[in-house]
Design goal:
Alpha-Beta Plaits, alpha+beta, RNA-binding, 3 helices, Nucleotide-bd_a/b_plait_sf, SLIRP_RRM, RBD_domain_sf
C-alpha cells in the first residue's frame, strides 16, 4: 500500500509546473530567446509570452515554466537577469494545471 501512495504522490508532483513570472521583457526579445536564456538554469518546459491583438507587440511580461522546483531555485539564485540591456523582474509562482484545481470552472 505504501508503494501505491508514493506512486500517486509522484504522479501529482510530475503534473505540477513550477513557474516564474518575468516582467520588463524588452520589446525586441522573442519567446525563443527567453527560453534559450532560461534553459541555462534548468529544463524549460514552456515560455508563454502573451501578445496584444491590437498592437501586435508582446505585453512585456511572460511566464517561464520549469519541470522542477530546483530549476526555479537556480534562476532565483542569480542576483540579476539582464537581456538586451534591460533588467528583468522575476517572481516565483507555483500553479496547478486546470485539471488539478479543486473547484474547476464550469
Amino acid at each position: 500500500m505504501a508503494a501505491a501512495g508514493a506512486a500517486r504522490a509522484f504522479g501529482r508532483r510530475s503534473r505540477q509546473l513550477f513557474d516564474i513570472f518575468v516582467a520588463e521583457v524588452p520589446w525586441t526579445v522573442s519567446s525563443k530567446e527567453l527560453k534559450e536564456y532560461f534553459s541555462q538554469f534548468g529544463s524549460v518546459q514552456r515560455c508563454q509570452l502573451p501578445f496584444d491583438r491590437d498592437t501586435g507587440f508582446h505585453r512585456r511580461y511572460c511566464w517561464i515554466k520549469f519541470s522542477t522546483p530546483e530549476d526555479v531555485q537556480n534562476v532565483l539564485k542569480k542576483d540579476s537577469h539582464i537581456l538586451e540591456g534591460s533588467k528583468l523582474t522575476l517572481k516565483q509562482q507555483t500553479r496547478r494545471r486546470r485539471s488539478q484545481r479543486r473547484n474547476p470552472r464550469e
